[in-house]
Amino acid sequence: MKYMEIKDLIEAELKNYSFNQMIPSERYLALKFECSRETVRKAYEQLRAEDKIYKRQNVGWFVSNKKIQYYPTSVDNFSSYMQAQGFQARTELISAQQIDQFNRSDLFSEESRQLGFIEIIRLRYADDVPVLLEYNYLPIMLFPNVLNYDVITSVQEVVKNSFHYDYTSSQLKIKNTGVSHFESQYLGIPLSQTATYIERISKSDDLVIEYDIEIWSQDKIEMTLDIQV
Fold first, then answer.
1. Could you report the per-residue pLDDT of 23-62, keeping only the tens digit for each?
2. Is 30 within 8 Å of 41 (Cβ atoms)?
3. What DSSP character marks residue 146?
4. What is the DSSP letter of 67?
5. Given the DSSP bridges, would you call strands 195-204 and 169-177 parallel, antiparallel or unpaired?
6. Which residues contact 191 (CB under 8 A, 6 or more apart)?
7. 3-class DSSP state of 27
8. Which helix (H) or strand (E) holds 171?
9. What is the pLDDT of residue 224?
10. 193 touches 179 (CB < 8 A)
11. What is residue 57's predicted lDDT score, i.e. its pLDDT?
């Protein structure tokens, strides 16, 4: 059987599964349809291209949920905009540590670079599915003892409410990117699959207060931008 025929058969069976439910393995379907695993894999890849299923590395294939609407101009934190869209949000702290520098330390003042930075890495979940790996970098000069606060839920809220800096502007860079072994492990996506990379430089007036990188599973989000003319 050709892979498009297999794809149509699999698609017809997806209605029997719930969102985020695991579907049969490539090996199982190859036996069921008396074809090669490569044929099943091509069928699955076609269904993934149509946003009907997604793959978690070393786990298996799952039925896609609805897309997360990502609004680049939004100032809401992760939990707020997940809940507003009907998702259950959860955050896991991967690491939080002091570092001397990182690849964009040059964004900050010389004094900030001398004192170092706090690096916070968090894994974000929507309906218990990992969707976002986020790296935040804060200058120690502006945010001493920041790790004494609840940075797991929202770095932004800590910056605003505990250190009294307002986010007045942000510069974003958005592109597709490959993932590292580290990112593949936590997001559960294959190394062969690209992710959505969002770099954000946040300022309070003219002062750079935060730098962060978001690595999103590409098949979990859609970019939405409202433009008024």
1. 999 999 999 988 899 999 999 988 988 878 888 878 899 8
2. no
3. G
4. P
5. antiparallel
6. 57, 178, 179, 181, 184
7. helix
8. strand 169-177
9. 78
10. yes
11. 77
Rg (CA), the chain: 21
Q: How far apart are the first and last CA of the chain?
A: 52
DSSP character at residue 1: -
**Amino acid in the structure at residue 172:** L
Structural contact between residues 33 and 9, judged by C-beta atoms closer than 8 angstroms: yes
Q: CA–CA separation, 126 vs 221, rounded Å?
A: 11
For residue 1, the model assigns a pLDDT of 66
Q: How many CB atoms lie within 10 A of CB 144?
A: 12
Non-local CB neighbours of 158 within 8 Å, separated by 6+ positions = 146, 149, 150, 151
How many Cα atoms within 13 Å fall on the side-chain side of residue 104? 17
Asked if 179 and 215 count as a contact pair (C-beta separation under 8 A), the reply is: yes
177 bridge partner residues: 195
Angle at 40 between CA 37 and CA 41, to 5 degrees: 85
Query: Which residue positions in the chain have pLDDT lower than 50?
Result: none
CA dist 198 and 74 (Å) reads: 14
**pLDDT value at residue 227:** 75
Phi and psi of 50, rounded to 5°?
-90, 10
Task: Answer positive or negative: Cα dihedral of 12, 17, 20, 24.
Answer: negative
